[in-house]
Amino acid sequence: MGVSSHIRENLEVKDRIREDGLKISREIVRECRTASFALHGKDFEKAGKSIEAAGNSLKKLVARFEGHADIYHAGFVEHAQQEYSEVAVLYSLLKDEGKTQDFPSPDELGVEYAAYLNGLGDVVGELRRHILDLIRAEAFEKAEVFLGIMENIHATLMEFDYPDAITGGLRRKTDVSRSLIEKTRGDVVNSIQQKKLEVAMKSLETRL
Fold first, then answer.
1. pLDDT for 52
2. 166/14 Cα distance (integer angstroms)
3. Helices 140-158 and 170-207 sit at what angle, rounded to 10 degrees?
C-alpha cells in the first residue's frame, strides 16, 4: 500500500505539471500566431510585444518542467519552441527588410536545437507568403532578396541530415521547403518577365 501511495502521489504531481505545461504551451502558440499576423501586416510593435510575451512564457514553461524530463520531451514543449523560433527569426528578417540574415540563434532564444531547425523550416513558408505580397506590390528586387534568404535557409537545413529521431522530422520540412522555393522562384521569374513585357508593350505603343 505504501508503494502504491507513493507512486500515485508522484503521478499526480506529474499530471498537474503536465496540465500547467499544456496551458502555458497554448499561450505561447497563441502569442506567436498573433505576432505572425502582425508581421505580415507590418505592425512590428505589436509583433514584438507578442514575441516578448511568448519568450517569457517559454522560460516559465521550461522552469515548470525542471526535474521532469519525461514530460518535457512529450512533444508540446518542442512545438511551442518551434513556433517561437519561427516567429522570432521571421521578425528579425522582415523588420530589417532582408538587409541582414543575422537572426537570433537557438541559444539566444533558449530553445532546443532540433526545435529551432524545424522552426527555420517553417520560416520558409512564411517568407513565400511575404514574397507573394511583394510581387503584388511589384517590389521585385525585394522579392529576389527574400528568395535568396529562403534558399540560404534551405541550404542550412540540408547540412543536418540526421535520423528523424534526432531532428524531430526535419527531413520532411526540408523537402517541403525545397518545393516551396521552386514554386516561389517560378512566381518571381514569371512576374518579372511579365512586367518587362508590359513595359516593352507600352514603349512600343508610345512609339507608334
1. 96
2. 25
3. 160
Q: What is the pTM of this model?
A: 0.89
- The CB density around residue 3, as the number of other CB atoms within 10 Å, is 7
Quote the mean pLDDT of the chain.
90
Grid cell locating 6: 507513493
Average the pLDDT over 18-40 and give the result.
92
Question: Is the pLDDT reported for residue 1 higher than 60?
Answer: no
| Cβ contacts of 39-45, under 8 Å, gap ≥ 24 | 39/87, 39/90, 39/91, 39/94, 39/126, 40/126, 40/129, 40/130, 40/133, 42/94, 44/91, 44/94, 44/95
Angle at 135 between CA 102 and CA 170, to 5 degrees: 45
What contacts 24+ positions apart, CB below 8 Å, involve 22-25? 22/76, 24/57, 24/60, 24/61, 24/64, 24/80, 25/61, 25/76, 25/77, 25/79, 25/80
